[in-house]
Design goal:
Layout (H helix, E strand, L loop, with lengths): L1 E7 L4 E7 L15 H5 L6 E5 H14 L5 E3 L20 E4 L5 H14 L4 E2 L9 E4 L21 H12 L13 H13 L10 H11 L11
Parallel strand pairs: 1-3
Antiparallel strand pairs: 1-2, 4-5, 5-7, 6-7
């Protein structure tokens, strides 16, 4: 059984579901994406994504018409396995087509590019044996990566921030995707400990420091679900 948090950008709300491994991910089309497939190699029982990511998946799956295997999708940031500000930690990224032929992957790649529903489709020369697409949102705080977060922010990037701070021992006392007073204090405590401006805003410098310390450290005693 997994807890799945889904952020709906259109109404700025988060919804929580309890699903089995062989259940479809909420908002996904028919049975084209099961919880176990979305989880991939993650050992976490708490997962998250967005409605728009699922809508992008749905359109891609309908237009491709054939099954699309998902090699890697969700990971929590302390599990690592991807870059420092990977969209996999946001639950909006898919590495697909590992079992496809090269011609099938090219068909999927050009389809994903043409649909204009993905925020980013990785160039085919960078993904020789898979197809990567993600439905990132928000303006990156750095040249790429996660957006600026502050009091009142909501969504999967807040979940990443809360998850990272908790793993590093700065308690947010919740994992709800809502940037409230506890998340601000935890961030300020981290900023002070790392000689950053303790303004309670997670911008480029804070994101770089946080992700540099937390990616791949493993489940610590202060991680919460």
């Amino acid at each position: 059984m997994a807890k799945i948090i889904v952020y709906d950008e259109d109404n700025d709300r988060l919804y929580t579901y309890q699903k089995n491994e062989d259940d479809p991910v909420p908002y996904s089309y028919d049975r084209t994406l099961l919880v176990g497939e979305f989880r991939g190699s993650s050992k976490s029982n708490t997962l998250w994504t967005t409605v728009r990511a699922m809508e992008a998946w749905n359109l891609t799956r309908r237009e491709y018409k054939d099954p699309i295997d998902v090699g890697y999708a969700f990971k929590r940031i302390w599990e690592g396995g991807h870059g420092l500000q990977s969209q996999h930690y946001a639950g909006v990224s898919f590495d697909t087509g590992q079992t496809m032929s090269s011609s099938e992957r090219r068909r999927l790649y050009y389809l994903a590019k043409s649909l204009n529903v993905w925020g980013y489709v990785e160039p085919i020369n960078m993904t020789p044996t898979w197809v990567h697409f993600d439905r990132r949102y928000g303006k990156p705080a750095c040249s790429a990566g996660y957006p600026v977060l502050k009091s009142g922010s909501k969504g999967v990037y807040v979940l990443i921030l809360q998850d990272a701070l908790n793993a590093l021992g700065y308690p947010t006392y919740g994992l709800d995707g809502i940037f409230g007073a506890n998340t601000k204090k935890a961030l300020q405590d981290f900023q002070r400990s790392n000689n950053l401006s303790a303004d309670g805003v997670c911008g480029c410098s804070s994101w770089r420091k946080i992700t540099g310390e937390v990616v791949g450290i493993g489940r610590t005693s202060t991680v919460i679900d």
